[in-house]
Specification:
By secondary structure, this protein is α/β, with parallel strands linked by helices. It has helices spanning about 5-15, 20-25, 30-35, 50-75, 115-135, 145, 150-170, 170-175, 185-195, 195-205, 215, 230-250, 250-255, 260-270, and strands spanning about 1-5, 85, 95-100, 105-110. β3 and β4 (about 105-110) form a beta hairpin.
């Protein structure tokens, strides 16, 4: 992987005298995308407040990258040309990928990671988003409406979660949460998802091509008391991809090559509409 590290620019600007405009100048296309879809520039504040805190987070993330690259290579995925950008953001996301001057790049906000396991799980997850977009650009988005379309989110998040579990050899609960939840809370969450699976599948099938605030909450972590507002969309996406994989004996590379219309049909008819 080709790592671009903007953390020194953060220290020189946000923690120095350059301000947000100087920081954004370090990689304009990244910040344009970031502030369009993932955070609001008007609410900007220094999340990491000292150079020592920046260095600590940078070391944590960078220390895991060789292992992640090796695991992806063992799964048959060539990431030698992947551009991975490290920066300090607003702690609103673990990262994602975007179209950077004609090529997809992966962005990782280092403040979002508090453990090695979180780095392993979610940096791998975000790289897989980049690989899927690069192979099948029709899964990418250029508007907020496209980003929030239920079927796009269900498939892309389901693929990245399932594939990260396969690449890293993780149980589903770990691939979905890393250690953000304790083992006990993770177990209860998985049980709640299973108990409401039929209801969840019906809702997703009915809103497959929709964009709505109600559907979007499936991919947020807003209410631990209600899985419909606590990342149940990720679980459903994982289960949908798992069903497709078992039925067609697909591997990670097969899924990466699936055109969006076919992937959508498989998820809808092999999982959402199956009893």
């Amino acid at each position: 992987m080709h790592v671009v590290d903007l953390t020194d620019a953060y220290c020189a600007t946000i923690l120095g005298r350059g301000g947000l405009s100087g920081y954004c100048h370090s990689y304009p296309t990244l910040f344009k995308h970031y502030f369009q879809f993932w955070a609001k520039a008007r609410y900007w504040h220094a999340v990491l407040r000292t150079p020592a805190a920046v260095r600590r987070q940078r070391v944590l993330v960078r220390s895991r990258l060789p292992m992640i690259e090796k695991k992806l290579a063992r799964a048959g995925l060539d990431v030698s040309q992947v551009k991975l950008i490290l920066f300090v953001g607003q702690n609103t996301s673990n990262g994602h990928a975007w179209l950077d001057r004609g090529k997809f790049a992966v962005w990782i906000p280092i403040e979002a990671y508090q453990s090695k396991l979180q780095v392993d799980v979610f940096v791998t997850h975000e790289i897989l988003h980049g690989l899927q977009y690069a192979r099948r650009p029709e899964f990418y988005f250029t508007t907020e409406r496209e980003r929030r379309m239920v079927k796009r989110q269900l498939i892309t998040e389901g693929f990245a979660t399932w594939a990260s579990a396969r690449v890293l050899g993780l149980a589903p609960g770990t691939a979905l949460w890393a250690d953000y939840l304790s083992p006990q809370k993770r177990k209860r969450w998985l049980l709640a998802c299973r108990r409401r699976e039929a209801e969840l599948k019906l809702y997703l099938a009915s809103n497959f091509g929709a964009v709505s605030a109600t559907a979007a909450r499936l991919f947020y972590a807003n209410d631990p008391g209600d899985v419909f507002a606590y990342r149940a969309g990720y679980w459903a996406g994982f289960k949908a991809v798992e069903r497709v994989v078992r039925h067609y004996r697909y591997g990670v590379s097969n899924l990466l090559n699936l055109p969006r219309p076919r992937f959508e049909r498989l998820v809808k008819y092999e999982y959402l509409l199956k009893k």
